[in-house]
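We emphasize that the prediction below concerns an isolated chain of 125 residues; any contacts that depend on oligomerization or on bound cofactors are therefore not represented. The input was used exactly as deposited, without trimming of termini.
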Amino acid sequence: MDSTLPIFPKPVNQTAVTIGLVHRAVPVERLLEEACEVAKRLARRSPVTVAAIKRAVYKGSSRSLRGGLRIEQAEFLAAASSSQGLRGMSELVRRYPSNKPLPSIELLAQLPEWQRGEAIDLGAG
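Result of the prediction step, given as a token string:
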């Protein structure tokens, strides 16, 4: 990475995406629309879980693999046992009861909805 970038910022382009500096580049005319879409998706996520992920990345990235995994495990358990985590797990069990096997193809078709944070709104309460 260019060590002068924080001092002399340059416009973000596809090169920044390629080297992993950012995860995507958006044309300036779509920037506000894209930022609002990201904010909507983020607002549907559990604030407890988002905070836990951020802590795990921040704290775990400076540790050994074993130490980082311990931090990730502790954060996961804390988030999963929160009221929002329990609500999310309850919804998952309600939609996919263990006594009714879900065909792999059906599960894969529904996976993007969960990945985008659109399967259940955990942002409120």
